[in-house]
């Protein structure tokens, strides 16, 4: 066996496993699990449910919704009423009925409905005529400038490069975010709007 190649060893092992009974195959599986280290383990399946919920309780609503997309087990944990009830009660949002033990996700739905009812107004985006970009000029200093090499002078004359804090788009639209599940206090957002 020591002198065989890897392919020969694998063929022999497959033949042996096919000839073994189910109990012998389970024994082999247990032996392999003990010897081969586990590479990726979901901590929520290994930890007690209370500890997993405690870890999830530190997440904001948006992160909890993202966790629900990881796996079925994470979806089950991240939509439990124990997590969402605390987030609703923090704002004083109570439900007006007693959910049955079979109803799941009542507090999450209530949280989303309450945030939507706030009717947060979108911030006014200035029109292109009102939007003014101030041209930034470098500050002159008393220190004499040193000369650039000849190759660098040619590239700087050819085109004008924008400073790193400015982009070519004078009306950026990616800076405004509208998400009901932000971690900000929705009441404060409504007052500011």
TrEMBL record:
Pfam families linked: F-box-like
Matching CDD domains: F-box_FBXO16 (cd22172)
Chain ranges of the F-box domain: 41-87
Biased composition (Basic and acidic residues): 158-172
Range of residues in the leader sequence: none
Region (Disordered): 150-178
InterPro entries: F-box-like_dom_sf, F-box_dom, GEF_Ubiquitin-Prot_Reg
SUPFAM superfamilies: F-box domain
Name of the protein this chain belongs to: FBX16 protein
Species, as recorded: Catharus fuscescens (Veery)
């Amino acid at each position: 066996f020591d002198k065989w190649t890897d392919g020969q060893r694998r063929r022999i092992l497959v033949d042996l496993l096919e000839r073994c009974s189910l109990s012998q195959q389970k024994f082999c599986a247990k032996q392999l699990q003990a010897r081969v280290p586990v590479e990726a383990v979901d901590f929520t399946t290994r930890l007690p449910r209370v500890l997993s919920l405690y870890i999830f309780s530190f997440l904001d609503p948006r992160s909890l919704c993202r966790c629900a997309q990881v796996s079925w087990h994470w979806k089950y944990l991240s939509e439990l009423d124990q997590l969402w009830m605390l987030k609703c009660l923090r704002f004083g949002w109570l439900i007006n009925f007693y959910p049955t033990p079979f109803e799941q996700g009542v507090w999450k739905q209530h949280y989303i409905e309450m945030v939507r009812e706030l009717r947060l107004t979108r911030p006014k985006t200035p029109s292109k005529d009102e939007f003014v970009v101030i041209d930034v000029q470098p500050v002159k200093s008393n220190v004499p400038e040193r000369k650039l090499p000849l190759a660098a002078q040619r590239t700087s004359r050819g085109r004008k490069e924008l400073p790193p804090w400015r982009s070519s788009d004078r009306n950026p639209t990616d800076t405004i975010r509208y998400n009901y599940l932000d971690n900000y206090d929705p009441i404060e957002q409504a007052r500011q709007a």
